[in-house]
Amino acid sequence: MDEKDLMARLAAIDGPTVLATIVAAKGSTPRKTGARMLIGPERVIAGTVGGGCGEGEVIAAAQELLEGGKPRVVRVDLTDDFTSWSPAVCGGIMDIFIERADPGVVRDAAAPMGGRADG
Amino acid sequence: MSTHPPRGNLSAARIAARVLEALARGERIHTAVVVEASDQALVGRRRWWSSRRLNGGTLGSRSLDEAVAGKLRSLFPPHQSTAALSRRFAFGEGRWARIYLELHGPPAKLVIVGAGHIAIPLARIGAMLGLRVEVLDDRPEFAAAERFPDAHAVRVIDFCDPFAATRPGPADHVVLVTRGHSFDYECLVRLLRMSSPPGYIGMIGSRRRVRATHEQLRREGFSTDDLLRVRAPVGLDLGGQTPAEIAVAVAAEIILFHSGGTGKPLVEKERVVERFFGEG
Min CA distance, A77 vs chain B (Å)? Predict the structure, then answer.
């Protein structure tokens, strides 16, 4: 699924969904900053942040969020277990932001630059 | 539910819809979200800015919105069409926020002027790199769509005004591989006089041919700085000879232009054997 398809999927979600986004990646990581993944209550809906152990951590954190946790940055460290059989062994660190992606109460009046509606 | 984004905040889904709208209209759009902050209530707050000078949402503080807006130009140079990064912003009285920013824009163009033997592999590789390829030539038998199945557009042009239909901008790439230096010259005069010229301008040629073109440009009043904006001869020094090899060298330079790599073999850059397995 390419970036634009994933964006369309994200724009169209209607149920409880968590968005995980790689907001920073250092070293050798399977996917780069900007990679995204959508996670629902039962399953991964679309996208990937790289697979392997790191992704498992993200999915677990997403479940917490769906049960009432707060949005936060999950740091996935792929540098330690160098001899592991896991496909996650790449030797990098990723910061992944997880948040509820479904539209809540929305106020989005497009205002010209300079003018604004503060929230 | 309490886990929803704060009241009045733009959700990721809403922002995605905005991005798709902007792309459909050919606009650039920047999006921002607070991912960490001194004040937890700001986390998840979003704002967007489009190239039509529209904006919406808020990062939760007016001074933070302004601090981020003021940095967009330097964080995302005009030659970029998509990018993602995060930065920490301080916004007074010990308050800080880590902001994740994205730029979405229409795919950058690769405009190939001269539809000869190098254009064919270059158009293909350009399309593989995700560039929107346009091929221009004044000879209809060369500027023929069936020769360039991967190209977004193939245009028969007049060298009096070669970019009339294409209008390359700062995010775009123009590679001149015409059949004669007078054609290159006509193109360069146009490109260098544009108010917002393409970020990447390359011209193929021997040292002699490049020098002849540059001499003509100097006579026309262009400065040395203008000449330095043209990558000529175009491409990395890979030593290749065939059209496909030359196309790879040009494509490699375009990648280097965006990625900021060294262009060296990684083995020389990393020197793993020398570092870890060398004699003491």
Answer: 18
pLDDT in tens, B147-172: 999 999 999 999 999 999 999 988 89
Q: Which structural domains are found in chain B, ordered by start?
A: 12-104 (no CATH), 109-259 (3.40.50.720)
Asked if B24 reaches chain A (Cβ–Cβ under 8 Å), the answer is: no
Residue A114 lies in a domain: no
Instruction: Confirm whether pTM is higher than 0.80.
Output: no
Place of tokens 């309490």: B2
Residue B17 has pLDDT above 80, yes or no: yes
Rg (CA), chain B: 23
Count of CA atoms in the C-beta half-sphere (13 A) of B14: 24
Local confidence band at A48 (pLDDT 50, 70, 90 cut-offs): confident
Residue A92 lies in a domain: yes
| Residues of chain B contacting residue A101, judged by C-beta atoms under 8 Å apart | 11-13
pLDDT in tens, B195-204: 989 999 999 9
B49 and A113: CB-CB below 8 Å?
yes
Is residue A108 assigned to a domain?
no
Give per-residue pLDDT as tens, B70-83. 999 889 877 778 89
A3/chain B closest Cα distance in angstroms: 11
Q: What percentage of chain A's residues is helix, strand, coil (to nearest 5)?
A: 20, 30, 50
Q: Is residue A113 part of a domain?
A: no
Contact B3 A70 (CB under 8 A): yes
**Which helix (DSSP H) or strand (DSSP E) does residue A21 occupy?**
strand A18-27
As a whole number of angstroms, the distance between CA B142 and CA B162 comes to 15
Contact of B116 with chain A, judged by CB distance below 8 Å, is answered with: no
Total domains in chain A come to: 1
- Residues of chain A in contact with residue B102, where contact means CB-CB under 8 angstroms, are 34
Domain coverage including residue A73: 3-100
Q: Which residue of A has its CA nearest to B17?
A: A11
